[in-house]
Amino acid sequence: MMEREVVGQRRNGKRRTAKKGVAVPRYFSTPGVDPAEELAWELRTAAISGEGGHVIFEQKDVEVPKSWSALATQVVASKYFRGALGSPERERSVRQLVGRVVSTIGRWGRQDGYFASEEDAVSFEAELGHLLYRQKMSFNSPVWFNVGVEEHPQCSACFINAVSDSMDSILKLAHTEGMLFKYGSGTGSNLSKIRSGKEKLSGGGEASGPVSFMRGFDAFAGVIKSGGKTRRAAKMVILDADHPDIEEFVESKASEERKAWALIEAGYDGGFNVRGGAYDSVFFQNANHSVRVTDAFMRAVQADGAWALTARVDGGVVETIQARQLMKKITEAAWLCGDPGIQFDTTVNAWHTCPNTDRINASNPCSEYMFLDDSACNLASLNLMHFRSIDGGFDAEGFKRAVDLTILAQEILVSNARYPTEGIGKNSEAYRPLGLGYANLGALLMASGLPYDSDAGRATAAAITALMTGEAYAMSARIAGHKGPFAGFAQNREPCLAVLAKHAAAVERIDARLAPADLVEAARGAWADARRLGAEHGVRNAQVTVLAPTGTIGFMMDCDTTGIEPDIALVKYKKLVGGGVLKIVNNTVPLALQKLGYAPETIHSILAFIDEAETIEGATGLRAEHLPVFDCAFKPSHGSRTIHYMGHIRMMGAVQPFLSGAISKTVNMPTSATPADIEQAYVESWRLGLKAVAIYRDGCKRSQPLNTAKDKKQEEAVAAPVERLARRRLPDERRAVTHKFSIGGHEGYMTVGMYDDGAPGELFVTMAKEGSVVSGLMDGFATSISMALQYGVPLQVLCDKFSHMRFEPSGFTGNPDIPIAKSITDYIFRWLSLKFLPSEDAQQVEEAKKDLAPGAAPQAPRLAAGASVVALPPVARPPAPGESTMVLQQDAPPCPTCGSITVRNGACYKCMNCGTTTGCS
Questions:
Q1: Catalytic residue among 273, 364, 383, 416
Q2: Which reaction does it catalyse (predicted)?
Q3: 814-833, pLDDT tens digit by residue?
């Protein structure tokens, strides 16, 4: 984009002469052609069903591009269309939605003198419209909610709020947070300025301490999320590692988690989002917790050194503890409930562009936006798969143009938006931080034939991120050439330009032998422009990029992967426009096979194998060296490969030097991970230069500490290979266990008879107060399961097939390990899995799963020679969208909108059914 002489207009309508303005040359669009007219459109019904099949949302005759998926249609219609449902004012077309946002930003740009001419303004609107219609880019949700609806709309999703050591400040923070939650945004605060409970008040009384005030903040967030107009409250609470109350803070959420378990065992409802339930009755369920640590603290941990906790008022040492012991408490709490995460304060402030104004103390809820207290950031994300060229390369030039357009649009939003407090409005105007990011990195790498956890994958990701941020700062400097730099630039000129130089220096460390040479060269060129133009004009925006979780907007763009995440699985379940779901192999798999040079017939064979086996392991014709390309975040049902959690951390380390902000990502760790493993992850994240990291141990919520041993005979019974199939009868006198259950108020009992080695061999189910039909059906069903077990069908196979079936009765159970059941069979087989297939025996489970590989006969216990061999055909039941992922995240909370089980997304959760997200983007 260029600059030229122009006559512009102020927002108040008075004309003025501007020396320069931004020229917007055509790249994606054609003069005189509406970008919407270049697409094929159709009318659809957008409908969302909840648990039990009841309709939560429905709008008929919604006009969308034919290329958009059913889920994208649902998201825009249910989340972003404005006007009362059924009224004439209700939006019904994506044309109206995109037109409302684009025309409003274009009008503001004209009024504020951003464009070199009216021709450039028209070009800007067409180019921006192209990006949005083609799903190449999306703004954060508040833009879609509010722009073009309100005169001065809230446009930012992420806020950081200051709080000081006074009751007035503390109560004002509660008010500010409440208003932000009401309008669908998230906020974070560092409470370290509040004096500890170990210090005296000025009047001589005892201070309450920040953890006490956190209870009040949490209660307000819980109330507001229940009635908010858009989505739940999202917040971050941070405390510095040298605060005297740090140990209380570290243990606060884990302590409440234990209380929730006790309440569930006492009969309280164990579901999330349930008023009066166990989790509604304990604190700290509405915020992410993070500890701020310095390099000095991390070195003290390594050296097992002393660590001073200092008073907030006079700075004196209140107590001295061992740093390693504090880290042990942090990792044990994270092992138990996922919190707290860690933010690396020294690293954060070493990359700070405005240290002469103030230091960075906090972040937004998802940890990607880190900047001054009382500031805001509007986010936008680019869909990387749409910049993949026909030959499988990366369209660096098109990507740069998209960055330029998005940065210009985000910049225009800053001065036309509404902010919740005067302080946030003042800082937003003075520093103008932006949060451009991307989605679909995992899909792009796979489609390019690159393993996510590889040097080449990391180098390519680094080059793309470097190009994005370099071009964003270059564009920011071009805008500064005619609008002036951000108001705080003069005060921070030296450190700001020094941070740009650090980014540019990091680009030189990307190995062009591992990443595409033209991409690396483009990144170097962008940073050369950024440094040159920044030195000449300054920059318009103190920050320009982050990597957000791209939850709802990821659905809107039909992204296969979000933010920096790898793909979840090779097989997915796609919603059909006319209803129902279709099991499909991930769209990136055939692209990857083509890129790797496989012949069409081999590709077809491999895809058929994946469709049948739900794994690529064992596919005929696939070369072993290409297996890592197809590794995903979770293990497939019948395979063993997955991306190690350190692979996620290494990817974050590769791209962090090229971001103004940080990265929203939770590093998922296996159930078997120990607190020591978590400490290793935290330490390695620090060494790699991350600004923040959060972990989540699969299955940690609502679970008791892991059993460390299991009867060896039972292990062998679960995993033992079998050559022949015949009935293995139980002894006349056998051990048994009886379990009482309740599902949505329907009570029942199940009794499991066991072999001498402890393996289950029979099942009896009795439903109390039920008619003879239900009792008879359950008796017959249990008998068939008993026969299956005795004829050698692995319990894991039965659990895989019958878990998560949906029918009535369903609902809450009171069982802390299975708080919600989708049906009686769902409950029975999830309980059997927990009872007889403990999660720490993952290897044995995987071995049993391999028995279902195509062509393999289901295996049973070894029998006498001469018994006949019978091969049983595999049984397939397509689950609901995302359900295969849900099996691996059974402790994720249900969606507050539709009730479906959510999946991890960055530091938060997203719903694969209706598109709801619990984050702030």
A1: 364
A2: a 2'-deoxyribonucleoside 5'-diphosphate + [thioredoxin]-disulfide + H2O = a ribonucleoside 5'-diphosphate + [thioredoxin]-dithiol
A3: 887 787 888 888 899 989 98
